[in-house]
Design goal:
Length: 283
């Protein structure tokens, strides 16, 4: 029986590979241009019908650019496109709903929600969909973990930013205030939600192929706790210096994982066509 050909690094031309690795830049430029056009038209026409488009573009442009970089920057696709899209959408919806419900229950029980609890809840909420994918598909290629994590963090960050943008419109009744809120949260998303979830899921994906699985499990737990600490530190501090340190740590860790995933040789490569769907999904 003939097998479908799966493109690999060796089957792609150098030019095609370079263009694929720069796809994230095209996404970023297109998103920024679209945002500027929508903003100018809305201000000029004073038509609030453009506000949902502005909110979506402002919230999604930077996160989806980071996701494009994570998915296309390597020697070959580490995760199928349909899975990345599914995790981004489901991770955002399930993550925000789970976090909102747990934080509401905590507030009702304790009368307040400590920042440490916020970190624990939101970092757990963003892991719900990646954990489900992990348990169902049992991935053997550790390269895909950071991509799945970035997708889930991207979905969560996008919906959360849209929520804050809408709240800002109701509070300030000013498009300028919404613009500032979208810009700030959009620029910070790679260093916060995306980075924290990306590094945690990257460690989760290493477990099946690790020689010492017990150590890999503890490494995953430790990375999750680090994400919680970074999250709680960010939320509880009003210091620009603290925020800068947390942002730098998050970005450095994220890009280390991305570079390792991009340079890593796919598991079993070079190889013939996958022998089962479970082997095929992560190639």
């Amino acid at each position: 029986m003939a097998h479908d050909h799966v493109p690999t690094a060796s089957s792609r031309s150098p030019r095609t590979g370079r263009l694929a690795r720069l796809a994230w830049l095209g996404v970023l430029v297109a998103g920024v241009l679209a945002y500027v056009v929508v903003l100018r038209v809305m201000v000029r026409t004073e038509n609030l019908n453009f506000f949902p488009s502005l909110l979506l573009l402002g919230a999604i442009t930077v996160p989806v650019s980071v996701l494009a970089f994570a998915e296309t920057g390597g020697r070959g696709p580490a995760v199928r496109g349909w899975l990345v899209a599914t995790v981004a959408i489901a991770g955002g919806v399930v993550g925000t709903v789970t976090a909102g419900t747990l934080e509401f229950d905590t507030l009702r029980t304790l009368g307040t929600v400590p920042m440490l609890f916020v970190g624990l809840i939101e970092e757990f909420a963003k892991l719900v969909v990646p954990l489900a994918v992990f348990l169902v598909l049992r991935p053997r290629d550790p390269r895909g973990g950071v991509v799945v994590g970035v997708a889930s963090g991207m979905g969560f960050a996008t919906l959360e930013t849209m929520g804050y943008g809408f709240q800002e419109l109701l509070r300030a009744r000013s498009i300028a205030a919404v613009d500032q809120e979208l810009l700030l949260r959009g620029l910070l998303s790679p260093a916060c939600h995306i980075a924290w979830t990306g590094m945690t899921v990257a460690m989760l994906w290493r477990i099946p192929s690790a020689r010492r699985r017990g150590r890999a499990v503890w490494a995953f737990v430790g990375t999750y706790l680090l994400a919680v600490v970074l999250h709680a530190t960010w939320d509880s501090s009003s210091s620009d210096l603290v925020h800068l340190v947390v942002a730098v740590v998050g970005l450095v860790v994220l890009f280390v994982f991305l570079l390792r995933a991009h340079r890593r040789t796919p598991v079993g490569a070079p190889s013939a066509a996958p022998s089962s769907p479970r082997q095929a999904w992560g190639r």
